[in-house]
Structure formats: C-alpha cells, structure tokens
Design brief:
Layout lengths: L3 H35 L8 H13 L3 H20 L1 H20 L9 H21 L6 H12 L4 H20 L1 H23 L4 E7 L3 H12 L4 E6 L6 E10 L3 H11 L4 E7 L12
Antiparallel strand pairs: 1-3, 1-4, 2-3
C-alpha cells in the first residue's frame, strides 16, 4: 500500500511535469507572437522583452540572446525571494523563448499595424499567461519591482508602470510615436489576456446577503435555485443586534433570479456581489 509520502512525491513530480509542459507551450506561443507579429512591425512589449527588442533593433544583436542576458541578473535576484524551483522554471522559460524566437525569425504573418497589435497582443498575453500560471516568468522587471517596492514608497504596479512609460518613450524615439502608441495598445491587450488566462473565464459570483428575513431568503434560494448557502453571524454596527448573513457562490446567469427572489421577500435587504475567479468544491450541492 503506497504511503502518504509516496503520494505527495508523485503529486510533486506530476506538477513539475505539468508546469514544464505549459511553460514550454507558453514560451513558444510568446515567441511566435513576438517574431511573427510585433518585431517585423516594430511594435514592442514592455519590460525586459521590450528593452531587448529596442537594443536588438539598434544593434542587430540576436533578440533571444539579449532576453537571456538581460533577464539573468533578475533571475539570480529571485533565487532568495522566490525559491530554486521558480528560478529553474524561469530560466527554462527564457531558454525556450530564445530558441523559439530564432525558429520563428523572418516568419511575418501580417504587415497591418492594427492586426499585428491586436493579434500579437492576444497571442503574447496567452503565452505569458501560461508561463505565469505555471510558476515562472519571462520578465525580470516584475522580480525587480518586488524588491524595489519594499525599499521605496511605491507599489509594484507603480514601478512597472513607470518603467514601461520610460521604455515606450524610448520606443517613440527609435520606432516613431505611432508605433509607440501601437506598442502601448499591445501591452494593454496582452495584460488583459494574461488576466483571463491566470484567473480563467469563470463567471461565478460570491454573494453576501444581510436581512432580517435571512432564514426565509436562504430557504427560498435553496429551493428555487438549487444552490447551497452558508449562514454567518454578525452584529449590526448601529443597532448592536445579532444579524444572520447569507453567503453563497452562484453563476452569473443565476444572479438576476437570485436578486428577484431576495427583493420579493425583503426589498430592504443588503446584497453585496463580488466576482469569483476560482471556486472549488460542490457548490451546486445542497450540503451546507
């Protein structure tokens, strides 16, 4: 009979293999976006890749080699903070990206700037999203931002935004301001696609309901929507009285019907709705 230790070891190996597989796919996808859409049209990404693209354009040095060289110091910095597995997987992602960049070199899909911006951003975002979701990174500036934000009074987002603003200003000088504006649009599109890949297309909502008719509302939701609800205990800030709070997770399609049910029972009920990016467990079962 296999022990718990054996099971944990198997899970770790499986997770590592899965990570490497998706990191490889992500790096190849990102390289395709860069060499087939962005580089030929002089549209850049942000961060280290963007800096590498500018230097490569000016010096004619190999883009893949520049990405590895510029990212290496940040990968070393990450060793203490992020752990050896993250460092290994990040180094692997950069090596695969560099090789794939050379493979897709001179393979231009379109010369239309708008098409290159939109589809380049979408494909690049998908590739980077796969890499980030599987515990690696292509961009050393994110690692640097974590260290800088702790020493100076700025957030990670502020540091990355400031750095990218500088990069796009340089891009405007090198490639022209129109291309720099397309580059900013590409970065925005890629960022949104990364969020989708990282968080999924989950359309679930978490709902908290505060009402004096909590029991009636909870029973109605269970019966009419066939969902599970949890009752929490709270105290009214003004009244000081005990309050029952209903908590549940539902799909986006169920929300309008839920609000209708609540309004019928207690028009004065307080309802808070929050997006849920990931939910685990049997939320469709009446088990709570």
């Amino acid at each position: 009979m296999p022990s718990k230790t054996d099971g944990a070891k198997s899970n770790t190996i499986f997770k590592f293999i899965k990570n490497i597989l998706f990191i490889t796919i992500g790096a190849v996808i990102a390289a395709f976006a860069l060499e087939s859409f962005l580089v030929p049209n002089q549209i850049i990404d942000g961060g280290v890749i963007g800096i590498s693209m500018i230097i490569s354009h000016v010096t004619k040095w190999n883009l893949g080699l520049l990405v590895i060289i510029l990212n290496t110091p940040f990968i070393i910095l990450a060793f203490k903070k992020m752990g050896k597995m993250f460092v290994f997987q990040t180094a692997y992602a950069n090596i695969v990206l560099a090789l794939a960049l050379n493979f897709f070199q001179q393979y231009k899909v379109t010369g239309d700037l708008l098409l290159a911006t939109v589809f380049g951003g979408i494909i690049l975002g998908a590739g980077v999203g796969f890499i980030l979701k599987n515990e690696a990174s292509l961009d050393g500036t994110e690692i640097l931002s974590l260290l800088v934000s702790k020493k100076f009074s700025c957030s990670v987002g502020e540091f990355i935004m400031g750095l990218n603003l500088f990069i796009y200003m340089v891009a405007g000088k090198v490639f022209g301001w129109e291309n720099a504006m397309y580059s900013i649009l590409t970065y925005f599109i890629a960022s949104k696609v990364i969020d989708i890949v990282m968080e999924g297309l989950n359309s679930s909502k978490s709902v908290e309901i505060i009402s004096d008719e909590a029991g009636t509302i909870g029973n109605a939701l269970i019966e009419k929507l066939d969902i599970s609800v949890t009752y929490l205990r709270g105290i009214g800030g003004y009244s000081g009285q005990d309050k029952d709070i209903i908590y549940c997770v539902i799909s986006r399609l169920e929300l309008p019907k839920m609000l209708e049910i609540i309004k019928e029972i207690d028009p004065r009920a307080f309802v808070a709705v929050v997006d849920v990016h990931e939910a685990y467990g049997g939320r469709f079962k009446k088990h709570q």
